[in-house]
Design brief:
- The protein is mainly alpha-helical.
- The chain is 84% helix and 0% strand.
- It contains seven helices and no strands.
- Helix 3 packs antiparallel against helix 4.
- The longest helix has 37 residues.
- The chain starts with a helix and ends in a 5-residue tail after the last helix.
Length: 161
């Protein structure tokens, strides 16, 4: 459907339009095509497994989109305001995503420093001396790695053990 909307933009009748008239039609059509693409993505991602919050969120988004489409249909230059809001929203989402990525990168850096097995091996060597066996080392490494894995799961998930 979005492809048909974009194909309609390439018709000779629309190509001949100039200025404000062309902008009003092209912007509205582009926004509708983009909205259809987003709806297709949202429906395919949220309707696989029905969960109440996902359906409510999708319904709210589609309703808001319909209000915008009707508003743009009545006053096509509102599409410029819609684009400004969409760009601002996209910028805020990208900023939040980058902040989250930076937080996670800092956490992974910290974890990689703590993941060094050498202090554990040196402590085992000091404690056991010549009696240190591969089984003791494996058991100590398993405990250390399990502790790090548990902490990482807690860090990234609200529901982790």
């Amino acid at each position: 459907m979005a492809l048909r909307a974009r194909a309609a933009l390439a018709t000779p009748e629309l190509e001949q339009l100039e200025g404000r008239e062309r902008a009003e039609i092209r912007l509205a059509c582009e926004i509708r095509a983009e909205a259809l693409d987003r709806c297709e993505i949202l429906v395919s991602n949220n309707v696989i497994m029905l969960e109440t919050l996902g359906v409510i969120s999708l319904t709210r988004y589609v309703f808001e989109l319909l209000v915008w489409m009707k508003s743009i249909e009545r006053k096509p230059l509102r599409s410029l305001y819609f684009l400004i809001l969409a760009l601002d929203d996209g910028e805020a989402h990208t900023r939040q995503h980058l902040e989250q990525l930076n937080t996670e990168a800092a956490y992974f850096t910290e974890m990689s420093e703590r993941d060094d097995p050498m202090p554990t091996l040196l402590a085992l060597q000091a404690e056991h001396g010549d009696a240190l066996t591969p089984d003791i080392v494996r058991a100590a490494e398993r405990v250390r790695m399990d502790a790090i894995d548990t902490e990482a799961r807690r860090h990234f998930s609200v529901y982790a053990a």
